[in-house]
Design a protein that fits this description.
The protein is mostly helical. The chain folds into two domains: 56-318 and 339-414, no CATH class; 454-543, no CATH class. 63% of the residues lie in helices and 4% in strands. It contains 23 helices and eight strands. The chain has a four-stranded parallel β-sheet. Strands 1-4 form a two-stranded antiparallel sheet. The radius of gyration is 25 Å and the shape is globular. The chain crosses the membrane at residues 32-49, 61-82, 159-176, 188-210, 234-261, 268-286, 333-352, 364-384, 390-408, 415-435. Keywords: Membrane, Transmembrane, Transmembrane helix. This is MFS transporter.
Amino acid sequence: MALLLGAAYLAHVRWAKGRGIAEIFLLDQDFPVVWGTLLAIVLLAFWTTRGSTFAPRPPSMRIAGGAMLIILLMAWAGRTIVFQDYSLSRDEEMAEFAAAYMRAGHLAWPIPPEWVNYRRALVPEFFSPFGATHYWAATYLPVNSAIRALFDGLGDPDLAAPVLLAVGLAALWHNARLLFPDRPDAQWVTLLLAFTSAQLLVTAMTPYAMTGHFAFNMLWLAAILRGGWRGHGAAAIVAVLAGGLHQWHFVLLFIVGFLFWFALNRRWAALAFHALVCVVIVALWAKLWPALLIDLYGPASDIRPSAGVADKISSLFGRVFRSWYPLAYSVRFIAWNNLLLIPLAVLAVLSAGWRGLFRGDTPVLPLALGCAAGAALMTAQVYGWGFRYMHGYIGSFCLLGGYGWIALSRQGRLPLRLLATACVLACCSTAFLAWRAHLWVAPYAAADRLIRSSPTDLVIVDPRGGVYATDLARSQHGRFVRPLVLSLGMLDTASIDRLCAGYSVALFDRAAFLPLGIPPARVQAGALATLRAHMDSIGCGMPLRQSVLNR
């Protein structure tokens, strides 16, 4: 562990040419947690290895369900307490954006004709290319947003992710009972690893699709373990829905290990059926969905479409070659989960041996293959609480942890001090990480509130000098409500002249957002500086400051 931390520090801090979000979070969130945990382990090593053990009863519905309800409520409350009801990243904003037009009965927002020429300034990134000259749609697939729209109709879209988390935990509990029927201790270890995961809890406070991937993967596994035509049929439905959560390749990476497992067990019918399901997933979400959008809204424009299979594969390999960060994101995944998670999962694989793995008696191999596939794609995620590209495999890690526990403890007894120490440390880490996440998000949320409070028709955001200040230029989920917020970098001098002549305009720049706490970044000369100088020369843009609004 110390070697991993040292290598991550040298690669991403000491020898790094620049410092991005991955490096900032590594120093601000991950290093303090991992070093603090290592120190606690050293100090408590003697105490945790002593003490009594006990043989627990299986986790009952009452106890497990009660814990899941508490976690659900914590995630729901955390949306307001930790994140102030603000979606930090474009990924999250697009999930809410799509949920808004689905709630209104559409698959895209029509752009009013008078704003067509400003469409990229109003929605700068992460938009669908199909019909983009006259419609706004999210670049992601629709299922995650459809779930949010459903919960919006029920009263609160922010309940969607917490409920999905609870569903995933319930499916994990069910799977642990099926896989470890005679080992209640392994069932408890599996659940405690998930219950104390900061990544599962904090991510469920956001609109990210990753909570859905965790839930759907565990539901798919539950259906597979049930067996029979009902079980495999249910698994097919879950897999197709999971493919449409936001990107279709995530569920395939989870399923492919099980296809190999079916082959090892000579379950040829199951292999053929689920291989066919994988083909259906690709055909539906990579081919038919874009075709539907083209039929409804028109061909791709503004940006190059990248929904095809070849585009997706090329993009994945390209990202791995350009921005593979195994050191930083390994540390991040460790920091945001229980300290026993990875050691126990690795022990499960090692204790099985290659003969045991390929004998296929247990699903250790397919679970491990999925985890390995996720780990291989440790590309730059920018924002994310934990390593979100591994989020769908946390359930797999927890089940592997159960197998690792069985290999470690043949007697079926739990050392109370060891588990208590691991869980208390994980809970303390969760509180610290949620606090650090809040401190990072709060300035951006305050900036968004300040922008929305402007009395003008328009607010133009000059993002120079702030870390990811470009993300402040966003619509109200595609709704045209005053003020409209535009990105300066997506305008030109002619459009600025027209907007300033026809509307009241406020300017939001580093003089406004730096005092709110948004981290500073280097101010570079270029097109933005030219556009800003033009605005100044024509006297366009009331400086938007809290002090000005308070007068």
